[in-house]
Amino acid sequence: MRLTQHTVRLLLAEPLRISRSVMTARDAVVLSVEHEGLTGHGEAVSSVFQKLDTPTLQLLAVRAGERLARFSAPETALHALRVGELTVPGTPAAVTAAVEAALLDLVGKRTATAVHRFLGSRVAPRSATARTISLISPGRAAVQARELAEAGFSVIKIKAGERDHDADLDRVRAVRAAAPSARLLLDPNGAWSAGQARTLLPLFAELGVEAVEQPLAPGDPEALARLAARSPLPVIADEDAVTHEDARRLAGRVHGINVKLAKCGGVHAALRIAALIKGSGTDLMLGCLTASTLGIAPAVHIADRARWTDLDGHLLLAHDPWTGIGGDDGFVTATGRPGLGVRPRTEAGVPAGVDNGSGADACAGADDGSGAVTRSGADSRAGAGSGTPADARAAVRSAAS
Asked: For 86, which of 80, 105, 167, 348 could close a Cys bridge (C-beta 3.0–4.6 Å)?
């Protein structure tokens, strides 16, 4: 097998302002794994919060390619990833998730099977996704909420965390008035103290907010659990519930856990968390980072497991280099196409070599946003191993279970 990479600059349609930062763009490092004429793709995005800059992601992609080259087939590599033998200890979850996505995409194309079927869902998941409104004025928030409701969005997530709490309350009031039928989620991104949260949560409950994500600064999950026990709103852990162990600590003590593949390590890790919290009184939320359709797609294939779906990262972009999961009408959908079911939008600047399942090379002349072309490759030295489609399906079911 051979892994190549290229980097694409993702520009947001408008700045995304949250309580701790403002974002206008980020880089996406696309990992493409080629084997026997087919190519699978995954994506890792740069993140200041996760301390993952673009050069680091590119270097880690090279190392992942070197280790992938030792495997004779994507099915065996996928199993090795599951048991911790593919990536070196300390590999960031975002890289592991991207490698897993590329392997799942490739195995799906080899067997003409959509990824969600490997993962136990016979029907392609279709889920109403939240759409985020950032820290903007109440007037602008009202305009956006009205447009979203008219487009078909039934769930709206409102950012909070202003120093002036009245501004947050006014923003929610404006959204509620503009979209009276919408389900409202609130996300302060850890901006409140415990005392502030105890004061504010009843006020937001009166405005019809359905649930609140990570109201307290991360780092004290016990404080979050204590708040959840007395909160008039469901409290969803986000930054305090990244790993399986984090989820185990909070299962049954908060109302929800927001699982993001780029933070937990991919689809398999997310399904382990979902299995852990099932029946505990803690529900699953599927979230995402701002990313392209390619980066969001793996989570869409397990969206039927979640009570709350927040997979709108690709909808925040000025130009999405990929297509295939929808979302503009308020619903993300996993199609029946093989693999992840996504394909490049060549007109949006993705290199012409990126394929849609036909096996073309995926790293021809991609710009990383600074004018440099990034490229890495590792040729397979372990020999080819194909097997039958049935063998491949059995292997990936085992790897994804």
From this structure: 80
Residues 160 and 382: their CA atoms lie apart, in Å, by 52
DSSP state of 221: H
Q: State the DSSP code for 326.
A: B
What single DSSP character describes residue 298?
A: H
Can you say whether the dihedral through the CA atoms of 66, 72, 78, 83 is positive or negative? negative
Half-sphere exposure at residue 213, Cβ-oriented, CA atoms within 13 angstroms: 29
Residue 283 three-state SS: strand
Per-position DSSP letters for 105-122, written without gaps between them: HHHHHHHT-BHHHHTT-S
CB atoms within 10 A of CB 11: 12
Residues 6+ apart with CB under 8 A from 256: 211, 234, 235, 236, 237, 282, 283, 284, 285, 307, 308
d(CA 295, CA 234): 28
Beta-ladder partners of 309: 286
52 bridge partner residues? 47
| Residues whose CB is less than 8 angstroms from the CB of residue 272 and which lie 6 or more positions away in sequence, other chains included | 244
Greatest Cα pair distance, the chain, in angstroms, is: 64
pLDDT digits (tens, 9 = 90+) for 237-287: 999 999 999 999 999 999 999 999 999 999 999 999 999 999 999 999 999
State residue 41 phi and psi, 5-degree precision: -125, 145
Residue pair 306/284 in contact by the 8 Å Cβ criterion: yes
Q: Tell me the mean pLDDT in the region 18-32.
A: 95
pTM for the structure as a whole: 0.87
Determine which helix (DSSP H) or strand (DSSP E) holds 155, and give its type and residue range. Answer: strand 155-159
Amino acid at 382: A
Q: How far apart are CA 304 and CA 300, in angstroms?
A: 8
Give the count of beta carbons closer than 10 Å to the beta carbon of residue 204: 24
Q: Angle formed by the axes of helices 194-206 and 165-178, to 10°?
A: 20
DSSP 162: -
> pLDDT digits over 60-81, tens only?
999 999 999 999 999 999 999 9
